[in-house]
C-alpha cells in the first residue's frame, strides 16, 4: 500500500512538473544580440550578460508596471510631468507650484522642525489613499518587481536611483514644499556595538 501511494505521488508530481514546462520562442531582441556576438571572439558569459542586460533595459517599460494599479501609474506619471515642468521651467496654463530647492542634509544635521516636516510628509503620503493602495506604496512599487533588473543590473544604477529619489522628493513636496529628502551617513554608526543606540532614532 505504501509503495502504491509513493508511486501515485511520483506520477502526479511528474505530471504537474512536466505540465508546467513549455517551449517559448526567444524574443527577437535577444535572438539578434546572440546572433551578432560571436562566442569565438568574446567570452560566452560576457555575451550572455550583455544580451540579457540590453534586453532588460530596452523592455523595462513593458514589464515593470504589470502589477501596479492604474491609479498608481497615473500618479507616477503626474509626478514625472510635474518634475519635467519644473526642470525645464515650462510655463503651462495650470502653473506647477514652485518647488523649494533645498540642500540635502545628513539626517542628524536636520533641525527638529525639519525632521518633523519630513516625517509628517512621509506619513501624509502613507495616508493619501487617492492612489491605490496609497501614494507611498505607489512610489515603492516603482522600485520593485521587473523594474529591478533595469535599475540594478547595469550602468543605469546611479542615474535611475537619482531619478527615483527626485520622484520621491517631488511627492513629499506636494505635501510640504519645504521638505528636502535627507540622507544617512552609515559610516557614522559603523563603530556602534548596537545600532539601536544610533541617534538617528532620536526625536
TrEMBL record:
Keyword Signal: yes
Secretion signal span: 1-19
Highest taxon listed in the record's lineage: Eukaryota
Annotated SUPFAM superfamilies: Di-copper centre-containing domain (SSF48056)
Listed GO MF terms: metal ion binding; oxidoreductase activity
Domain Tyrosinase copper-binding: residue ranges: 134-192
Coiled-coil regions, chain positions: none
Keywords of this entry: Copper, Metal-binding, Signal
UniProt keyword Signal present: yes
InterPro entries: Di-copper_centre_dom_sf, Tyrosinase/Hemocyanin, Tyrosinase_Cu-bd
Protein name as it appears in the record: Putative tyrosinase
The species this protein was found in: Limnoperna fortunei
Amino acid at each position: 500500500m505504501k509503495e502504491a501511494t509513493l508511486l501515485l505521488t511520483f506520477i502526479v508530481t511528474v505530471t504537474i512538473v512536466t505540465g508546467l514546462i513549455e517551449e517559448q520562442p526567444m524574443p527577437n531582441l535577444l535572438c539578434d544580440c546572440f546572433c551578432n556576438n560571436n562566442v569565438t571572439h568574446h567570452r560566452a558569459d560576457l555575451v550572455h550578460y550583455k544580451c540579457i542586460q540590453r534586453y532588460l533595459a530596452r523592455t523595462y517599460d513593458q514589464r515593470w508596471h504589470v502589477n501596479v494599479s492604474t491609479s498608481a501609474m497615473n500618479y507616477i506619471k503626474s509626478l514625472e510631468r510635474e518634475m519635467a515642468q519644473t526642470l525645464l521651467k515650462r510655463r503651462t496654463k495650470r502653473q506647477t507650484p514652485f518647488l523649494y530647492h533645498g540642500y540635502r542634509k545628513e539626517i542628524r544635521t536636520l533641525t527638529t522642525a525639519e525632521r518633523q516636516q519630513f516625517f509628517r510628509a512621509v506619513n501624509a503620503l502613507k495616508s493619501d489613499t487617492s492612489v491605490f493602495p496609497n501614494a507611498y506604496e505607489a512610489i515603492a512599487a516603482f522600485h520593485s518587481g521587473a523594474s529591478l533588473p533595469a535599475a540594478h543590473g547595469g550602468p543605469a544604477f546611479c542615474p535611475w536611483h537619482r531619478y527615483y529619489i527626485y520622484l520621491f522628493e517631488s511627492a513629499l513636496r506636494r505635501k510640504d514644499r519645504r521638505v528636502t529628502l535627507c540622507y544617512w551617513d552609515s559610516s557614522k554608526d559603523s563603530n556602534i556595538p548596537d545600532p539601536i543606540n544610533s541617534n538617528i532614532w532620536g526625536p
